[in-house]
Amino acid sequence: MSSFVVRSVLMLMALFVASSQASKCPRESTGRDGPRRVVLDLDGGGDDGWALLMLLENEERYNICIQAVTCSHGNARVSDVLVNVLRILDSLNRLDVPVYVGASEPLITPGPNRNDSHYFWGNNGFGDVEFDSLPSVDSSQSVHAVEAMRELFEQHPNQITLLVVGPLTNLALLYKIYPATKEKIGGLFIFGGNRHGVGNTALAAEFNFFRDPEAAHIVLNNSPMIVYVFPWETVLLQTFTTRWRFETFAETTNPAVEVLNRVEYKVYAEEEIWTPCDMYVAAIFLNASILQSVQSYRADVELTGTVTRGMMAILHHVKDANQHNVVVIDRIDSDEVQRMLVALSNAS
């Protein structure tokens, strides 16, 4: 068989595989009866894995479809973030979900020193656990995440909700490169920032905002819609212990939870409280009834403070709701979130 024929056959096979792994999101708008579309922008830590899992396992129950996953630097190098995302998708046989690689570094300044930013999830975002094999990267897309976002929001104007659970670099780049596209984002939910000055880095800032303060500043000050922010302090109000977490998922039949078990048995070995931060944003998108206390404010991001760089500052003196740019989520229904979590233990 000639090399030309071989190449032709391989090309046809590749096209067949690509078509068979097309996203489950409908190509065309399906009106009010269609699924709610969502893009998840993440930075590849274990809590990002829980957020992705929460969405994947609830597509049918809550009538959603994952339009894409976009990767950013943050908990790990963006190349490791890609591997972690694909590992979760592969475990659930969901490589149909398009995955795009985005920003590998902050917008302006070099990334903060690791001693300051506390790489809780290890070097690779998954606790540096040695898995037996690498997931296939064949399903990752060659288009940059920012270009993919632009195309999706333009194709489905005001129909896609964006969940950002890592640094805001990809979204800030979208705002600057394609400023008109931001008007076509259907909704924006963020995990990040802090509302009382309590940080989870060595300084007075939350990790995602601290990793790229300029990006967070751009997003909060340029978003045409109200931004729903789940801050670090709200995580601290939850009561999930590591003992509950390990006992609940010890006998799981969900292969993605098995992956996260291996990661978190190592990462949380000496911890008493389990903080699946990014998962909360996915849960809120799925089930808005878990929101119990929210408040709108005008907020900004500190860029120059010696110990406050990256801190989200609430401007309490701005009383006019028309000038508010964020809705801060202060309290959620932990019992309902717990129910949603327990449901993930069994494979769908």
UniProtKB/TrEMBL annotation:
GO MF annotation list: hydrolase activity, hydrolyzing N-glycosyl compounds
SUPFAM superfamilies membership: Nucleoside hydrolase
Gene3D superfamilies reported in the protein's UniProt record: Ribonucleoside hydrolase-like
Domain called Inosine/uridine-preferring nucleoside hydrolase: residue spans: 38-337
InterPro entries noted in UniProt: Inosine/uridine_hydrolase_dom, IUN_hydrolase, Ribo_hydro-like
A Pfam family per the record: IU_nuc_hydro
Span of the signal peptide: none
Family the UniProt entry places it in: Belongs to the IUNH family.
Official protein name in the record: IU_nuc_hydro domain-containing protein
Species of origin: Anopheles stephensi (Indo-Pakistan malaria mosquito)
Origin organism lineage: Eukaryota, Metazoa, Ecdysozoa, Arthropoda, Hexapoda
